[in-house]
Amino acid sequence: MSSLSRELVFLILQFLDEEKFKETVHKLEQESGFYFNMKYFEDEVINGNWDEVERYLGGFTKVDDNRYSMKIFFEIRKQKYLEALDKHDRSKAVEILVKDLKVFASFNEELFKEITQLLTLENFRENEQLSKYGDTKSARAIMLVELKKLIEANPLFRDKLQFPNLKSSRLRTLINQSLNWQHQLCKNPRPNPDIKTLFVDHSCGQPNGARAPSPANNPLLGSIPKPGGFPQLGAHGPFQPAPTPVAPLAGWMSNPPAVTHPAVSGGAIGFAAMLKHPRTPSAANPSMDYPSGDSDHVSKRPRPVGLSEEVNLPVNMMPVTYPQSHSYPQDDFHKAVARTLSQGSAPMSMDFHPVQQTLLLVGTNVGDIGLWDVGTKERLVVRNFKVWELGKCSMALQAALVKDPTVSVNRIIWSPDGTLFGVAYSRHIVQIYSYHGGDDIRQHLEIDAHVGGVNDIAFAHPNKQLCIITCGDDKTIKVWEATSGTKQFTFEGHEAPVYSVCPHYKENIQFIFSTALDGKIKAWLYDNLGSRVDYDAPGHWCTTMAYSADGSRLFSCGTSKDGESHLVEWNESEGAVKRTYQGFRKRSMGVVQFDTTRNRFLAAGDEFVIKIWDMDNTSLLTTIEADGGLPASPRIRFNKEGTLLAVSTVDNGIKVLANADGVRLLRTLENRSFDASRSASETVTKVVT
Fold first, then answer.
1. pLDDT at residue 327, as a whole number
2. pLDDT at position 273 over 90
3. What angle do CA 410, 413, 415 make, to 5 degrees?
4. What are the DSSP E strand ranges found in 97-196?
5. pLDDT reported for residue 506
6. Cβ pair 467, 512 in contact under 8 A
7. CB burial class (10 A; 0-12, 13-18, 19+) of residue 27?
8. What CA–CA distance (Å, rounded) separates 451 from 246?
9. What is the pLDDT of residues 7-27, one digit of tens each?
10. How far is 548 from 597, CA to CA, in rounded Å?
11. Predicted local confidence at residue 682, as pLDDT
12. At what angle do helices 50-57 and 38-46 cross, to 10 degrees?
């Protein structure tokens, strides 16, 4: 299915939801497999609608797809089996055992035998492992927590857990725009036409419902096909009048607008367009741009000249309203300092675990790494910098460490499923650890990656294979296989040290953005054909790039050598800055760090505070002081759910801020910890007495 067809499904889902077609919405979610509605899934699990739970899951994964999927289905069927046993419905339990659970016997025969033996017990709680099984409601709630973790870690659900950020009634808006365009083609347009049907094209000059005259010979339009109601998504379109000459997108560099855009080398190919064939304007009508059938976004299509994106001519159709201003409950913002952690040296990089939302990795300016459980305030792991196998390292690294043994962490980051994490150091190497839960981290790979500092590290899945991406002072980007550490690609072309990398994918195309200290942004596919684009980043110095959580919007934040900071959103289709966010001081004291959360907010550390923007508004939304004690340009990091925000402090510590959901999460963990410690204390007391 093409990208536009996929987007149309999301528009239909939004329309069905707004019109309260609840069952149809979830049926389309399941049949398309594009969006997994976690709220609906949670409700069905809590209500014990097991057939619907499995039917809905079946649109996204099958039992034997991978280990995560197998575990998901096993937990659901085990719960259904235990509930039948709890009701003493042995015949139902046997049916579930034979029809639903037997499939797992081939993978773990001993476990299946143990489950079968529960039938012989009067109360399955006599089994030691099930002795703490409570009532049905609490058991379902506990299982649901586990299911959500498995679903979030399952690669088959990647990019299916977030609904696109759409304005309300987007499908209605597109229909209105189509009718506006049809109305413009009328020979004698009425001031207030009455639209009674969408089944045929609109025309004012004839009885409503008759087809509009063909504009094929209209000198303003040039030679174009007859207009239809909705152009086929796989075909060329849309078609629109052009009363005044307009430069096509492909020629935006030859006719630069008044607004300054970053320079482009090698032709005007946008970020997204680099992955496809560049578009060419029609020779018959140079004022029009015909997007190819596989264009990435509906928003790329040109609009009738003189019409803004959301304009509605006086066509009496379906009314659409849009909010004029944004108001946010205070619960949305991370005002409360929920935790204060003492790291001991200055944090340089932080990252929350992608599944376990309260696990925080920290890398510091002396090369230390720490792993914190924010929920319990416990530092689970601390490791000082040490080269694991110095003899295997290059002579350049060995000589550099002898001359100056000080090493800093430049970046620390979890892999997408949280089973690995990588550390990029200021001297040559990256170290990869495997994580096995609790305080169990193990050495996995040590790579002598670059000559000089390794400035950034990231994980990606090109060709469905987990890889490590690094960049460094030697002006290169390198790709390494994550299991063996084998180097797969070296990308050369930057003329300055490479500062950051941002891997991403659209549809099935994997690519990497890189930024260098001369302000150049380049983009690479996983091949040996060189960079695809060459742009100038605002500030022309230290710049990082990041996508919103749903992968639909691209942002960058950078600081110039003069201390001027720039936070911008990019128009991928044109390779131009779409909006520039306001609110930075004229001279930032250090390189500004930023992060995104919940497809809604941007945050940056500047002027001893955390600054927050709405993604759709360039004005500064609010600032957070975190009770003071922040450095001039603090390091910041949100957890995946956007409920917690970690920020570095001047006293070599970390403050963890929480919104209302984050406060509730931490209180829940505190209560569990208290209950566990109280239970242990009671056990010890009994033994002593």
1. 52
2. no
3. 150
4. none
5. 82
6. no
7. middle
8. 49
9. 999 999 999 999 999 899 999
10. 7
11. 54
12. 150
DSSP SS3 for 331: helix
Give the pLDDT of residue 263: 34
Enumerate long-range contacts of 426-431, CB under 8 Å, 24 or more apart: 426/453, 426/454, 427/397, 427/400, 427/401, 427/452, 427/453, 428/393, 428/394, 428/396, 428/397, 428/400, 428/452, 428/453, 428/454, 429/387, 429/393, 429/397, 429/454, 430/454, 430/457, 430/468, 430/470, 431/388
Residue 604 burial by Cβ neighbours in a 10 Å radius (0-12, 13-18, 19+) = buried
* Whether residue 63 has pLDDT greater than 50: yes
The residue behind tokens 């950034």 is 456
DSSP string, 263-310: -BSSS---TTGGGSPPP---SS-TT-----TT-S-GGGS---TT--TT
Q: How far apart are CA 143 and CA 145, in angstroms?
A: 5
Mean pLDDT of the 284-289 span: 34
The SS3 assignment for 10 reads: helix
Q: How far apart are CA 239 and CA 30, in angstroms?
A: 34
Q: Answer whether residue 232 shows pLDDT above 80.
A: no
Q: Are 482 and 467 in contact (CB under 8 A)?
A: yes
260-264, 575-579, 654-658 — which is least confidently predicted?
260-264
64 vs 106: CA distance, rounded Å: 11
**Residue 283 pLDDT exceeds 60:** no
User: How many CB atoms lie under 10 A from the CB of residue 260?
Assistant: 10
pLDDT tens sequence across 103-114: 888 888 888 888
* 3-state SS, residue 400: helix
Residue 576: strand, helix, or coil: strand
- Euclidean distance between CA atoms 638 and 596, whole angstroms: 8
Instruction: Determine the pLDDT at residue 111.
Output: 87
Q: What is the dihedral of CA 436, 442, 447, 449, to 10 degrees?
A: 60
Determine how many CB atoms are found less than 10 A away from the CB of residue 345.
Answer: 18
Give the range among 191-195, 377-381, 403-407 with minimum mean pLDDT: 191-195
The candidate with the shortest Cα–Cα distance to 357, out of 603, 132, 659, is 659
Distance CA 459, CA 353 (A): 14
Q: What is the largest CA-CA distance in the chain?
A: 100
Please report the pLDDT score of residue 593 as a whole number. 85
Give Cα 1 distance to the centre of its chain: 22
Looking at residue 383, what is its pLDDT? Answer: 96
How far apart are alpha carbons 383 and 379 in whole angstroms?
A: 11
Cβ pair 608, 630 in contact under 8 A: yes
Q: Which amino acid is at 381?
A: V
Q: What is the mean pLDDT of the chain?
A: 80
Q: Find the helix packing angle between 136-153 and 67-86, rounded to 10°.
A: 170
Please state the rounded mean pLDDT for residues 290-312.
32
The predicted structure's pLDDT at residue 512 = 96
In this structure, are strands 378-383 and 369-373 parallel, antiparallel, or unpaired? antiparallel
At residue 569, the pLDDT reads: 95
Output the DSSP codes for 14-60: HHHHHTT-HHHHHHHHHHH-S---HHHHHHHHHTT-HHHHHHHHTTT
Task: Enter the DSSP assignment of 100.
Answer: I
List the chain domain ranges: 36-157
Dihedral, 625, 626, 627, 632 alpha carbons, nearest 10: -60
Decide if pLDDT at 317 tops 60. Answer: no
CA-wise closest residue to 92 among 80, 107, 106: 80
Centroid of chain to Cα 687? 51
pLDDT at 418: 96
Q: How far apart are CA 498 and CA 246, in angstroms?
A: 38
Residue type, 184: Q
Residue 96 one-letter amino acid: I
